[in-house]
Design brief:
CATH class of the largest domain: Alpha Beta
Shape: globular
Distance between the termini: 75 Å
Number of helices: 10
CATH topology of the largest domain: D-Maltodextrin-Binding Protein, domain 2
Oligomer: single chain
Length: 298
C-alpha cells in the first residue's frame, strides 16, 4: 500500500514538472514588449556613444520619472499602456537587445514620456512599411521609429513637436567620397524602402540604380560588401552602423536638415497634447539631455 502511495506521488510530481514545459512549447512568439529602464549593451556591440557613466546617469533619471500633476493621462488603445509601433532595426534609435526586449534613444525617451503621462510603454515591432497604416488602423497609439516630419506624412497623421534633428547622410568609403546629390549620378545607391532617403534619391536624375532594402542595416551591409557605392539614410543611424569602421564615413548629405517626431493619429488630440507637454517637461528638467548624452554623447 505504501509503495502505491509513493508511486502516485512520484507521478504527480512528474506531471507538475512537465506542465510548464509543455505550456511554453505551445506559446506563440510575442512581438510586443513592455519597455523598462534599458540596458546599454547588446551582443558584442557598444550601443552608446558615451561611456557607462553617462548610461547609468540616464537610466537613473528615467527610473526616477513619475506621473506629472500637470498632465492628464490620455486615453489609449489599452488602458494604462502606450503602445508604440516601431521598425526595431534602426540603431541607435530602436533595436533589439537580443534578450527579448528593445533599447535605443527612442525607447528611452518614450519610456520617460509614458511615465510622465501615467502610462507604461509597450514596443510593438513591425516593418517600416506598415507603420502608418497600423497607426490609422488602431494597432498602436504612436509611431516611435525615427520618423522624419514631412509635408506628405502630415497629410495622413499628426506629429509631436520635433524631438531630434537629423539630415540625410550620404555614406561611402572614405576613399570614394560623395559630397552631394550630384555626386550620386552614375552610382548604385542603397536606401531603406519608403523612407525620405529613397524619395530624395528618386528625385536625382542619372542615378545608375537604386537598391531598396527592408531595413537600414541591410543597406549598410551591402555598402560594406561593396555591392552599392553609397547609402542615403538618416545620419544618426548611418553613423552608428559604421562606428569602428574607419574606412567608411558620412561624406556628404542631401538637402536641408529634418526633424524626427512621434506619429499620432489626427483624431487623437488629447494624446498629442499630453505627449508634447511631457516632452517639454523632460527637456526642462534635464532628463532629455541625459538620454541624449547616453546615445549621442555631449
Amino acid at each position: 500500500m505504501k509503495r502505491k502511495h509513493v508511486l502516485l506521488i512520484a507521478l504527480v510530481v512528474l506531471v507538475l514538472t512537465l506542465v510548464p514545459v509543455l505550456s511554453a512549447c505551445g506559446d506563440e512568439e510575442e512581438t510586443t514588449t513592455t519597455a523598462a529602464a534599458t540596458e546599454t549593451t547588446a551582443a558584442g556591440t557598444e550601443t552608446t556613444a558615451a561611456g557607462d557613466d553617462a548610461a547609468a546617469i540616464a537610466d537613473a533619471a528615467i527610473a526616477a520619472v513619475t506621473k506629472s500633476d500637470a498632465i492628464e493621462t490620455p486615453k489609449t488603445i489599452t488602458a494604462g499602456k502606450l503602445q508604440a509601433g516601431s521598425d526595431t532595426v534602426f540603431a541607435p534609435m530602436e533595436f533589439s537587445d537580443e534578450k527579448g526586449g528593445y533599447i535605443g534613444f527612442d525607447v528611452d525617451l518614450c519610456t520617460a514620456l509614458a511615465k510622465k503621462m501615467g502610462l507604461e510603454l509597450e514596443v510593438v515591432s513591425t516593418a517600416w512599411d506598415g507603420l502608418i497604416s497600423g497607426l490609422l488602423g488602431d494597432r498602436w497609439d504612436i509611431i516611435m521609429s525615427g520618423m522624419s516630419i514631412t509635408e506628405e506624412r502630415l497629410k495622413e497623421i499628426n506629429f509631436t513637436d520635433p524631438y531630434l534633428p537629423t539630415n540625410l547622410a550620404i555614406t561611402t568609403r572614405v576613399d570614394a567620397p560623395i559630397a552631394d546629390a550630384q555626386g550620386l549620378v552614375g552610382k548604385i545607391v542603397g536606401v531603406q524602402v519608403n523612407t525620405t532617403g529613397q524619395f530624395a534619391v528618386e528625385e536625382i536624375a542619372g542615378v545608375k540604380e537604386i537598391k531598396k532594402y527592408d531595413d537600414s542595416l541591410l543597406a549598410i551591409q551591402e555598402l560594406l560588401a561593396g555591392r552599392v557605392d553609397a547609402v542615403v539614410n538618416d545620419s544618426p543611424v548611418n553613423s552608428y552602423y559604421i562606428a569602428g569602421k574607419p574606412e567608411f564615413a558620412n561624406t556628404g548629405k542631401i538637402g536641408t536638415d529634418d526633424n524626427y517626431g512621434f506619429g499620432i493619429k489626427k483624431e487623437n488630440t488629447d494624446l498629442l497634447a499630453a505627449m508634447n507637454a511631457a516632452l517639454g517637461e523632460l527637456k526642462a528638467d534635464g532628463v532629455y539631455d541625459k538620454i541624449h548624452a547616453k546615445w549621442f554623447g555631449e
